[in-house]
Amino acid sequence: MSIHENPKGNKNTEELLNTLNAADSVRALEQYVEKLDQEAYPCSFRDYFLSCPQVEALGKAEVIRRSGLDRTYGYQILSGLKEPSRDKLLCLCLAAGLDDMQTRRVLELAKTGILYARNRRDSVILFAIRKGLSVIDTNLLLAEFGEDTLST
Fold first, then answer.
1. How far is 125 from 27, CA to CA, in rounded Å?
2. Selected residue with higher pLDDT from 107 and 27
3. Residues in contact with 57: Cβ distance below 8 Å, sequence separation at least 6, in sequence order
4. Contact 75, 64 (CB under 8 A)
5. What stretches of 41-85 show up as alpha helix (H) in DSSP?
6. What is the sign, positive or negative, of the torsion defined by CA atoms of 141, 102, 68, 53?
7. Staple partner for 67: which of 76, 91, 134, 151, CB 3.0–4.6 Å?
8. pLDDT, tens digit (0-9, with 9 covering 90-100), for 12-43
């Protein structure tokens, strides 16, 4: 199974709550949380991002160039030396042409918060992703709607 597929056999919320309720010590809670982390985040956002077909087709250098990020900083993010902000991840996802589900997964794995359709700024970004807009065009659209642009 590739890291782009949903793993089968994940427990539903009720089963997880039952397991959590059965935890009768701090050690049991630690074991539960550790297992939960392993199931929820089987790979890093970098591994996932770099294995996306769009990123593989473009290559790191082109994705970083299109993102508008400083070249050195972009490579540091993709090599794991720097932990990027949500905006920087969004710039990389837009630059690579990832769809909304791939972008969501990158944000989940990076634990930066997914795009939320009820949030005005996030809605504009989701629209841009679905329309395949560049980082520059996304920033122009954000500005047009009076929202903060993506920081590069």
1. 41
2. 107
3. none
4. yes
5. 45-51, 53-58, 60-67, 71-79
6. negative
7. 91
8. 667 767 777 887 888 888 877 777 666 655 67
* Reported confidence tier of residue 1, pLDDT bands at 50, 70, 90: very low
Give the H or E element holding residue 118: none
The tokens 């970098």 sit on which residue?
46
- Pair of tokens at residue 17: 């709550």
Distinct helix (H) and strand (E) counts, the chain: 10, 0
Would you say 142 and 124 are in contact if contact means Cβ atoms under 8 Å apart?
yes
For the chain, first and last CA: distance in Å? 34
Q: Which tokens belong to 29?
A: 């809670």
